[in-house]
Task: inverse folding
């Protein structure tokens, strides 16, 4: 168990908490709007607009540590996942490659001192989030979400619409739901090994069942919880399509 995996699991659980509140308690009975162009305000909370395309299909925002690109994406045959997969592929390309397994250690010579364990005691606390680790095992708690982790990684399953996986490279979250009212999806990657100094990548997507989708793609260099910026990102999506 290393500190990276624990921090990644913590970021995943923290992000999940905000996503879960909106998916499971949000106004899904309200139909989402169909739009042909983005409405990009000058600012949203900590985010300030820095660009907007003439065709109304993209606009960019920034805060001190975070970049957000708002996109309007059409669907083919109403297939939201087919439209989102290229964005996921683009973001996953920034994740570090898997670490090759280490060769087995040679047996210690008789009478040699025991090897020092690299296990760490870790305690991480965000508002509503607690991470504890000791002796190769970890536990992450946020609200009703419980993440169990060991040396092989961390996993969470929450109903049919949420999956979290974390290992030595970082954490990955998928969350989404589709209904007659529309589609909502969240994707988060967290790692401290990504190029460019980024620590969190992902998107928030929402739109009517047949599309188009408003997708906010986020890239953040923050090393601590900046949930207000993520709330601002989601507010931009809601500003355009409702829900």
Result:
């Amino acid at each position: 168990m290393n500190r990276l995996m624990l921090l990644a699991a913590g970021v995943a659980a923290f992000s999940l908490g905000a996503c879960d509140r909106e998916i499971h308690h949000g106004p899904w009975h309200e139909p989402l709007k169909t739009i042909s162009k983005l409405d990009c305000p000058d600012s949203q909370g900590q985010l300030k607009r820095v660009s907007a395309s003439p065709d109304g299909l993209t606009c960019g925002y920034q805060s001190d540590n975070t970049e957000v690109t708002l996109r309007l994406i059409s669907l083919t045959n109403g297939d939201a996942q087919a439209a989102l997969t290229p964005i996921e592929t683009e973001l996953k390309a920034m994740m570090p490659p898997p670490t090759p397994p280490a060769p087995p250690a040679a047996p210690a010579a008789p009478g040699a001192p025991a090897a020092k364990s690299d296990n760490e005691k870790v305690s991480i606390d965000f508002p509503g989030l607690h991470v504890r680790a000791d002796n190769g095992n970890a536990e992450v708690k946020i609200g009703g979400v419980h993440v169990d982790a060991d040396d092989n990684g961390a996993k969470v399953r929450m109903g049919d619409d949420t999956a979290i996986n974390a290992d030595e490279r970082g954490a990955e979250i998928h969350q989404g739901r589709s209904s007659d009212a529309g589609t909502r999806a969240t994707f988060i990657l967290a790692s401290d090994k990504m190029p460019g100094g980024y620590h969190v990548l992902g998107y928030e997507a929402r739109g009517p069942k047949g599309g188009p989708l408003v997708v906010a793609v986020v890239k953040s260099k923050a090393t601590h919880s900046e949930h207000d910026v993520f709330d601002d990102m989601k507010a931009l999506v809601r500003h355009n399509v409702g829900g």
About this structure: Residues 18-28 have pLDDT under 50 and may be disordered. The longest helix spans residues 3-25.
